[in-house]
Each structure stands twice: as C-alpha cells, then as structure tokens.
Amino acid sequence: MAYLAFDEIGAVQQAASGDRPTDDRLSALEWAVVVLARRDTLATLREPGRLSVALGNLFGRKPNPRLADPKLEALRRLAVLAWHDLGRVPAQEITDFLAAGFTNGHYETLRASIRAATFNKAQRA
Fold first, then answer.
1. What mean pLDDT do residues 78-96 have?
2. Which of 82, 88, 114, 122 is most buried (CB neighbours < 10 A)?
3. What percent of the chain has pLDDT above 90?
C-alpha cells in the first residue's frame, strides 16, 4: 500500500508543478491485456442475446473475456478492434478508451505495436 500512496503523492506534486507526464508506455499488465485480446473475437464486444444466454445455460457457458476493471476493459475492447480491423476503429471506442484514463499517446503506441506484430507475422508466412 505504501507504493500506491507514493504514486498518489507523486501525481499531486507533478500536477502542482505544472509538469504533465509524457510517458505513453503501457504497463506490463496492460500489455498482457493487449496480447490476450488477440484471441478474443469481435463477438466478445457485444452483449449476449437471449438465445445465446439460453444455449449457454443448456450446453455450458463459455468463459466471459470481459474484465472487471473498467480501464482494462476499455483497453481490451480497443485492442480487440485493432487486432481484427487495423484500418477502422469506431470513434466511440476511442472516446471510451480516452475517458478511461488513457492518452492519445497510449493509443498510438498500441496501434503501432499491433501493426508491427501483424507485419512481422505476414513476413514470416
């Protein structure tokens, strides 16, 4: 807990001095979410319908890939979209991503990383 308190104090001191953090790196946990999102389908972004819920109850439920932390869930959703459709990410998803506390720099880092991973995979094939 002392580490969290130190972060909070550090953030207050930065805000008071007028310096804005320019660190657009994602944490190890956030990168893990991006990597795991590669296996998620676009269907995981939608709420399950009544038929899907009924069939899940009948035949056994699939694990829910949604994350409990809203910030990480916003990251997962954006990463799923970026992995599956590199050219088009809906503006609302980007807005939700930014509202969760990420920056445009985080978004650009995420997109560049996914583009590089996709390019490297295509080169090896």
1. 88
2. 82
3. 41
| The pLDDT value given to residue 22 | 57
Instruction: Give the Å distances, CA to CA, from 48 to 24, 40, 53, 77.
Output: 34, 15, 6, 15
The C-alpha angle 41, 99, 24, rounded to 5 degrees, equals 85
Q: Would you say 107 and 78 are in contact if contact means Cβ atoms under 8 Å apart?
A: yes
User: Maximum Cα–Cα distance for the chain, whole Å?
Assistant: 59
Token pair for 34: 């991006």
| Cα–Cα distance, 111 to 79 (Å, whole number) | 8
Angle (CA) 112-96-81 rounded to 5° is 45
Per-residue tokens: 111:
């997109």
Residue 17 has pLDDT above 60, yes or no: no
- The tokens describing 7, both together, are 């972060």
Of the candidates 85, 111, 84, 87, the residue with the CA atom closest to the CA atom of residue 97: 111
Q: How far is CA 37 from CA 102, 104, 106, 112, in A?
A: 17, 20, 16, 16
Across 71-96, average pLDDT: 90
Nearest to 30 by CA among 64, 63, 86, 79: 79
